[in-house]
Amino acid sequence: MSVFETVRELKSFRECRDETIPRKIIGKVLEAGRQGPSPGNVQSIEFVVVEDEDKLDMLSDSVNDGRVEDVPTAVIVIADVERMRRRVGDQCYSFCNAEAAMTVQNMRLTAQEEGISSCWITGFDEDLVADQFEIPGGKTPLGVLIFGYTDNPTESPSRFGLNEICFYDTYGNQVDSVFDGFEWGGLREEREVYGKKVQGLTDKVRRKVRKFL
Ligand SMILES: Cc1cc2nc3c(=O)[nH]c(=O)nc-3n(C[C@H](O)[C@H](O)[C@H](O)COP(=O)(O)O)c2cc1C
């Protein structure tokens, strides 16, 4: 499966089977995370892998929507914020979050390729998790990445069309929905403006843009 196909398949799962994920696969997923990029190569990200049922129950109590309850494996993604602070100063939190995001996406794509669904959860009690899992001061849990085998993958919520979020050369300069023969996804010919559907806006822009091509 190509990276692009894996990206297209990637969805945040809502329910999973009662099936253990082999350690070998978890290892591969963690290795994919370790290979992620890092600002100044500070490498601020660390993991706590949680498989023990009691520990998963405990983690579940700290996560807002109780999504951890039935999963076989969860990974608490932690950032060494103080180490990042020494390198980048006050921007340390945003840099750690950016590093975590790229790490997590590497892990999710690798898991997906192995037939395992995942979901990145940031709605949780940070202090409680730090306390329960004995995370040292200066290190912050940024999120919980859950994994599981799903029978019924949920439909992803729709995305804005590329013609709505992508511009060329200048912000607002929309381009045609077809790019060199590649059909862009999620296109909407109608746009919602203050709750009303407005037709033909994209056609109008398209005609304008074509004049310059
Ligand atoms: C930064 C971030 C935080 C998220 N936090 C949560 C969360 O706390 N709980 C949850 O169920 N999903 C969470 N998600 C998953 C989103 O809800 C999900 O990606 C979105 O609904 C789109 O669905 P899809 O991933 O299936 O396409 C988060 C995603 C991101 C990128």
The CATH superfamily of the largest domain turns out to be: NADH Oxidase
| Ligands bound to this protein structure | flavin mononucleotide
Beta-strand proportion? 15-25%
User: Could you say which structural class the secondary elements and strand pairing correspond to?
Assistant: alpha+beta
**Domains (count):** 2
At the first level of CATH, the class of the largest domain is Alpha Beta
Instruction: Predict the CATH topology of the largest domain.
Output: NADH Oxidase
What distance separates the N and C termini?
Answer: 35 Å
Helix tally equals 8
What Rg do the Cα atoms give? Answer: 21 Å
Sheet having the most strands: 4 strands, antiparallel
The string of secondary-structure elements, in order, is HHEHEHHEHEHEEEEH
Number of strands: 8
- Based on Cα principal axes, name the global outline: globular
For the record, the CATH architecture of the largest domain stands as 3-Layer(aba) Sandwich
Strand order of the largest sheet: 1-2-4-3
Helix share, percent: 25-40%
| Average residue-wise pLDDT | 87
Stretches where pLDDT falls below 50 for ≥5 residues?
none
